Amino acid sequence: MVTLPAEAVAWARDAQAPPGAGNLPGSASGVFVGREEELAALRRELKEAGEAAVTQAARVVHGLGGIGKSTLALHYAHTYRHDYTLVWWIGAESAEQILAGLAALAVRLCPQWAAGAGVGTEERAAWAMLWLQWHPGWLLIHDNVEDPRDLRHCLGSLPDGHHLATSRTATGWHSIAPTVALGLLSPQASADLLSTLAFGRGRVLTGPERAEAEQLAAFLGHLPLALEQAGAYLYETGACMPDYLDMLERVMDSAPGGIDPQRTIARIWHHTLDAVRARNPSAIRILDAMAWLAPDEVPRVLLAPLADDALALGEALGVLHAYNMVSFSEDRRSVSVHRLVQTVLRERPGWPGRRDAERLVWSALSGDSDAFGGWGRIVPDVVALAVSTPSGYVATDDAVRAWRVVARYLSRLGRNAHTVLLRAATLAQYEETLGDTHPRTLTARVVLADALLDSGDGLSAVELYETVAEYRVRELGYTHPDTLNTLSGFARVCLSVGLVDGALRLYEDVLARMRLQLGEEHRDTMNTRHNLASAYAEAGDFRKAISLGETIVEQSARLLGDSDPATLRSRNNLALAYESAGEHERAVRLHEATLAQREHVLGPTHPGVMTSRHNLALAYKDAGDLERALPLLERNLAQRRQVLGETHPQTLTSYNWLALAYKDTGDLDRAVPLLERNLERREQVLGHMHPHTMNSRAELAHAYAARGDDDRAIFLFELALAQLEDIMGDSHPDTMATRGHLAAVCRKTGDLDRAVRLYETTLVQRERVLGESHRKTMHTRNSLAVTCRQAGDPQRAVHLHEVNLAHRERTLGADHPSTVLSRDNLAVARRAAAAAKAGQQTPPGAGRSSAPPS
Fold first, then answer.
1. How far is 144 from 167, CA to CA, in rounded Å?
2. Which of 112, 149, 103, 111 is closest to 130 using CA atoms?
3. What's the mean pLDDT in 683-695?
């Protein structure tokens, strides 16, 4: 989470973009031919969409590599830049590049804050998002989007300007933005482009020259990138088109089956490289190294070690630019190379330039980062180096060190999920050079598992931890510190994916061994005790969770101090345990005290304070005190909107809970539209399949059911269940919860047979995954029992209620509200069974089903 200082928020509101502000890159050739119709259509569509007050103007230009997507976007930006308050070009091949592009905008508009040494990429990007929300009328160009989902946050958060994206993929855009397909140039436009580049503007071709241009353009498949590079070669060398065509035909026959961009570029490659090498041998070395880095905006200073001095570097890059091998940024401080060019370069025998690229990034990371504008500036190059590692290639120590250093850098910024590619590359190299069981390999496997967990791939994380745990137990023994730490991490991962019983066993065993080996007050022992308390609460064993939580709070306050963040966190978690156990008064008092201390220590807008305020509001809500809960939820939402932005995930969480509070007050007219809007935002920002999105879908379905719109509620629950079963599996916690919600609506509408089947499936899964005494298992068993009685099977209902009552008395105590509920429902079921035996009937609605567990 990013928190901006108050003065930075004020600057985001007040700072104005200078007239004509932008960062447009230079064109490789500067020639625009044959796309006039596409340019006019693009302008018309963006302008029409922009005129609607609530319509977001966004268009995606897609097509194969080398087709001219970026050239079209660049020409559009140059043509209409004075119609926008700001035109900003963002390399969007990865989420990292998008973040870096936004961060660069903050440095341009607010250098007095963003250029400071203590301000990171994430803070700068958050500032830029806030500025774009305050100031309408801009154009953002997202160039070469690889994964459309990377743009969801930008498009969802920034509706008051134009977005223009280019992408090689035509799929995945249907729920994000309209697309415009870009095809090959027409034969006439191809010949025009080639002629202009080869002979210069204004030259009138003879009939034979025109025919030669058309023949060569056809051989090059009318591919703009190939035409540009061929034209540059012809211009620089003075070769005639028939001779050049003859050379190409000798290099490689025409590609069968139509246009093949990679083979088309390969046809012209040999002669172009020879010409560049003849003029400046250093240029080839620089180009070879750039093949392995990020394609967009490689800092010039990063390439400096490959030349004798700045003048030599400039001369080498100038030759590459003359042959359309590279293009310059507007300020000429960075250099870009086309991805198709990179692909051809990387596939040559021996991987030329690879080791140079590895030395360059490590030299940059171990030197003065200010020369690059901070490490965030070269993160895309380090990630590209990891992704482009050839199969069978053994990376140098420089490369592995670079991957590890940047992964740690990103992790410190709270972006551990973005380190998966770097961690995976590091692990692959350790496995290749050190072996599967080397300590460094094992550590690399653990840190990759943690990154995978943060990215949402919990099952892969479990597999990696299990492998490491088995080896360390076998080779080091149970009591070795490395083994204990690995087992504790393994338990944490198991808990996160719903393997609660396994997590409990692991935590209990690790805690016992740590107490013996390290002592009661060692930090690792205290952390494990804290984790075990959370696991007890997750398992529904609130008595153990509370007892252990109280011990942790006392110990933390005594050893670390009453206001230490760890002590405050322990109090917060203990309050949550009280709340889950139904001890609402104790939970509220502790949440109130924790919030007051956090506000005093951290300030009113600190993320931890907003979390405490949120938890206190929910405690009021659970205690039935909506009069105190609503103002807190409304205040928290206002602060999160101001500090984090309108569509930050935590802001969306605040929207969701405020809507649920309105729903609890019976104000469905306010709750339903808020839930509908929040679902739409989460679909835009997080994607249709994100857990928070599916949660929004479920909450909206509940609201529809409360309003009596059961058909829409069932539709949403069925949609969510099908998606979850397909992606997460039958026994994932979210799948089981959604199946239970669908069963509840079916029971409400009278479809009792279907409700029983759904509850039965959910109960079997929860007993297997969570255990027979987990609070969610007991909730499902209670609901199935009530439904069985309503469906005319009171004897089965009696049995289920008896089992449930025994579990609740043992785990929750005789006086817990859920235990009292089970006792009441058992009495109703017994009366129904007795009446059925006597041939009488009982009202079908008798008996109560507890509210869905959180």
1. 5
2. 103
3. 67
Model confidence pLDDT, tens digit, residues 416-445:
777 889 999 999 999 999 998 898 999 999
Which H or E run contains 62?
strand 57-62
Nearest residue to 228 via CA among 142, 78, 341, 86: 341
* C-alpha span between 556 and 550 (Å, rounded): 10
**Euclidean distance between CA atoms 786 and 799, whole angstroms:** 11
Identity of residue 716: L
What is the DSSP code string of 233-272?
HHHHH---HHHHHHHHHHH-PPPTTS--HHHHHHHHHHHH
Geometric angle at alpha carbon 853, from 852 and 854, rounded to 5° = 115
pLDDT of residue 851: 44
Alpha-carbon gap, residue 254 to 260, rounded angstroms: 9
pLDDT in tens, 3-49: 678 888 888 888 898 887 888 887 655 666 667 777 777 787 777 65
Rounded percentage of the chain residues whose pLDDT exceeds 90 = 22
d(C-alpha 348, C-alpha 42), whole Å: 38
Per the structure block, which two tokens stand in for 436?
């599967």
Which three-class secondary structure state does DSSP give residue 4? Answer: coil
Within a 10 A sphere around the Cβ of 851, how many other Cβ atoms?
9
Element (H or E) spanning 326, and its range? strand 326-328
Helix, strand, or coil (residue 59): strand
Tell me how far apart the alpha carbons of residues 256 and 566 are, in angstroms, rounded to a whole number.
Answer: 66
pTM reported for the whole predicted model: 0.59
Count of positions (residues) in the chain: 854
Q: What is the DSSP string of 145-171?
A: -S-GGGGHHHHHH--SSEEEEEES--S
Q: Which one-letter amino acid corresponds to residue 783?
A: S
CB 393 within 8 A of CB 432: no
Classify 683 as helix, strand or coil: helix
As a whole number of angstroms, the distance between CA 544 and CA 550 comes to 10
Helices (H), 773-816: 775-790, 794-811
Tell me the CA distances in angstroms from 523 to 372, 515, 518, 559, 566, one per residue in order: 39, 11, 9, 10, 11
pLDDT digits (tens, 9 = 90+) for 176-212: 677 777 777 788 888 888 888 888 877 788 888 889 8
Indicate the DSSP class of residue 624: T
Give the CA radius of gyration of the chain. 32
Looking at residue 817, what DSSP letter applies? H
For residue 505, the tally of other CB atoms under 10 A from its CB is: 13
Task: Give percent above pLDDT 70 in the chain.
Answer: 88
Could you give the dihedral angle defined by the CA atoms of residues 829, 698, 703 and 617, in that order, rounded to the nearest 10 degrees?
90
Per residue in 108-124, pLDDT (tens digit) is 898 888 887 678 787 88
Beta strand 57-62 with 87-91 is: unpaired
How far apart are alpha carbons 576 and 96 in whole angstroms?
35
Predicted local confidence at residue 684, as pLDDT:
64
Q: Measured between alpha carbons, how far is residue 280 from residues 152, 234, 274 in Å? A: 44, 17, 10
CB 139 within 8 Å of CB 77? yes
Dist. CA 548–CA 555, nearest whole Å: 11
pLDDT tens track for 739-771: 998 999 999 899 999 999 999 999 998 888 777
Q: What are phi and psi of 438, to 5 degrees?
A: -65, 145
Q: Given a cut of 60, is residue 514 above it in pLDDT?
A: yes
Residue 480, number of CB atoms within 10 A of its CB: 15
Quick: pLDDT tens for 245-267: 877 766 544 433 344 666 666 66
- Amino acid occupying residue 729: G
